[in-house]
Every structure is written in C-alpha cells, then in structure tokens.
Design brief:
- The protein is of the alpha/beta class and 248 residues long.
- The protein has eight helices and seven strands.
- The chain has helices spanning 18-29, 41-53, 68-82, 105-133, 145-148, 154-174, 199-207, 217-228, and strands at residues 9-13, 33-38, 57-62, 87-90, 136-141, 179-186, 239-242.
- Strands 3-2-1-4-5-6-7 form a seven-stranded parallel β-sheet, with helices on both faces.
- Strand 1, helix 1 (18-29) and strand 2 form a beta-alpha-beta unit.
- Helix 4 runs parallel beside helix 6.
- The longest helix is centred in the middle third of the chain and has 29 residues, at 105-133.
C-alpha cells in the first residue's frame, strides 16, 4: 500500500467494472478512501470486497448519473459520512453504436444523457462541498474517439468531445478556489466495451497504435491517480491521452 493519496476521499462513478473499477482499486491502494458509485449493486459489492481484501478503504453507493436526485444523494451522503469530498472521477459511460442515418433519437439522447449530462450533474453536485473547502480534484474520463471521431459512434464521439469542452470551462471557473479539473482520454482499452470486437477489427486497431498493443484499465487508473495527487497540483484544464500513441 502506498500513501500518495492518504486520507483523500474520492468518489468514482461507473465503478462496478472496467476502467472505473481499476481506478477505484488504484486510488485505494494509494491510501484513498474510495466511494464506488454505479447502478449495479452486486458488481459494486464485489469490487468493494476486493479492495477491502487488499487492505484498502472502500464503500459503495447506488447512483444513476441520469437522475439528479440520485447523484445529489450520493454526493451528500459521502460528505456527511466523511466530512469532505476531495476528488470526483466521472467515468460512467455507455455506447449505442450505429450509423447516423440509422440512429434513433433515443440512441442519441441516451448516450448524451449519461456521458455528458451525467458528468455535468455529478460535477455540479461535487463542486458545492469542494468550493466550501477550497480544494478538490475533478477528473473526467473522455475518449480518443471524442478527439478523432469514429464511424458508427457519432453520439459517443459528440458526448466525449463535449466532456473535453466542459472540463476546460470548469477548470477556468474553479481554479481560483483551489480546484483542478482535467480529463483523461483513453485509447482502445481492454474492457467490456471492446470485448465484442472481431479479431479482424482488433488487429486493425492494434496496427494503428504505435506501441503495438491495446491498453489495460490499469493504464488509465495510474493516470487518474496522478491527476488526483499533489504532484498534479499545478495542472488543470488538460486532456491527457492514454492511448499508446494512437492520437499524436
């Protein structure tokens, strides 16, 4: 166990699996008290148990980022339990891939509601206690797709590009209050979202990555932990691409 994030209280959305679960585990391993938030309680409890078994401090909270009341209750409960909220990691995200010509309004709206509006709701709720304590870290998980686009993912790309602009605007608004806001843009990472790729598609993607491999959730988790740490105290409004060189 490291103590780089000792006593930091961090809430991670979409923490029941994939990148979110890896982020929660890494933060806890560095000494943070981690609140894992998601809709899937059974997966959340398994993630919490795993962290505790490794000696970390973790708890779960039910949260649906598309529901304002759910978001505000989770943030309020965290602050009441721990007296503060030092870091928010906005990781929850969904995809509904299809070509624009075939896309239904509900496919567009569902992705925007979770991936972009959800980030807004969580950030707004978290900033209230952070402004009062005059410190905090916001880390938003965007995507390389939000920077370069991708056929069949116009809704996803738009939502993730929106997160970039949102992050920079928030960074400007709260910098004077001792709060930083940054984004991490994962490339192709080995998660449930990429598990359905065909071998041919995977080979094409890997060939386009200068480092010659698909990333792992731990690659993203380490970057998030850095952005929350004191080492990144003078870094705000930035987008860090963690993609093996895919987007240079």
């Amino acid at each position: 166990m490291s103590e780089a994030l000792k006593d930091v209280v961090a809430l991670v959305t979409g923490a029941s699996r994939g990148i979110g679960r890896a982020v929660a585990g890494t933060l806890a391993a560095q000494g943070a008290v981690v609140v894992l938030a998601a809709r899937d309680q059974s997966r959340l409890e398994a993630a919490v148990a795993e962290i505790r078994a490794a000696g970390g401090a973790a708890e779960s909270v039910s949260m649906d980022v598309t529901d304002r009341a759910s978001v505000e209750a989770a943030i309020k409960g965290t602050v009441e339990s721990h007296g503060r909220l030092d870091a928010l990691v906005n990781n929850a995200g969904v995809t509904r891939d299809t070509l624009v010509l075939r896309m239904k309004d509900e496919d567009w709206q569902a992705v925007l509601d979770t991936n972009l509006t959800g980030v807004y709701r969580c950030t707004q709720a978290a900033l209230k206690p952070m402004v009062k304590q005059r410190s905090g870290r916001i880390v938003n998980v965007t995507s390389v797709i939000g920077l370069v686009g991708n056929a069949g993912q116009a809704n996803y790309a738009a939502s993730k590009a929106g997160v970039v602009g949102f992050t920079k605007s928030v960074a400007r608004e709260v910098a004077s209050r001792g709060i930083t806001a940054n984004a991490v843009a994962p490339g192709f990472i080995e998660t449930d979202m990429t598990a359905g790729m065909t071998d041919k598609a995977r080979e094409a993607v890997t060939a386009a990555i200068p480092m010659g491999r698909v990333g792992q959730p731990a690659d993203i988790a380490g970057t998030v932990a850095f952005l929350i740490s004191d080492a990144a105290s003078y870094l705000t409004g930035q987008v860090l691409g963690v993609d093996g060189g895919f987007h240079m």
